[in-house]
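not sure who needs this but someone in the group chat was asking about ATP phosphoribosyltransferase regulatory subunit from Helicobacter ganmani so here u go. i didnt clean anything up, its just raw.
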Amino acid sequence: MILSHEIPQGCKLYFGKDAKVKRELESLASAILYQNGYEEIITPTFAYLEHQRDIHSREVVRTNNQFNHQIALRNDSTIDTIRLLAPHLREAAIGKRWFYIQPIFIYPTTEVHQIGVENLENCDILPFIEMSLQVLNGITNFTKSPDSYCKKIFLQLSNVKIPQICAEIFGIPLSAFEKIDVGAIESANPLMAKLLRIYNKESLEAVLQNTKDLPNKLEEELEKLYLLASKISYVHCLVSPLYYAPMSYYKGLFFRFFAENLTWILGGEYEILGQNACGFAIYTDNLIQSF
């Protein structure tokens, strides 16, 4: 017997204080994004299955329309946004800074609420980190204990090209980076042991200065990561060169804010349908769960 108050596993229910926090978070983010020249877009909840499948590991929730075409619930807003904007971008008919506040749906019954931001004219992720900090600073105004809460938030900087280059040069399967298989990574080459021990800007600088015969491609990407870290003064900043991006379309530098093993904000450089862009997502559910 299913009780009347039960909901399917993975679905979300917000009421009272949590619903209020969710609305305040969305309002705060909207205000910051509008101030930075972004416009809002709401993409369809349904899309043709061919536009949703094989884009990453997320399973889709599917059905059929009146013509028996396979339809899926939206399972990635970034891809939908780029796909729908692409024809208009070529005509220069619309702007190139967009945000959305809408859930995605993953098979069988999981819904993920998020605030997403896409910039199709500038691939610099530093402004995204700065906007993320604005949102996080604003959130402290309606948390239970703002002073202690802020100390738990970490910023992690990475570059997806670094594990890809290491996989190519040293014959390490990418799955080892995805699963953080330290043994497989460390045993591949002495250099990998050095990269595994990098945790901040200073330790990355030491590797760059003291390691002889760094492969050129690898050195170039490590320097990009160091340059980004040098521009950030956030106290709890981690540098993780071998952390692999959870999204397959990420192509370069990326970052995430996390606390207590929950990712709050994730963003970086990506390429979809030949369009280079930069974006980030605020994971509303994780933030509210942490309050």
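also The mean pLDDT is 89. if thats useful
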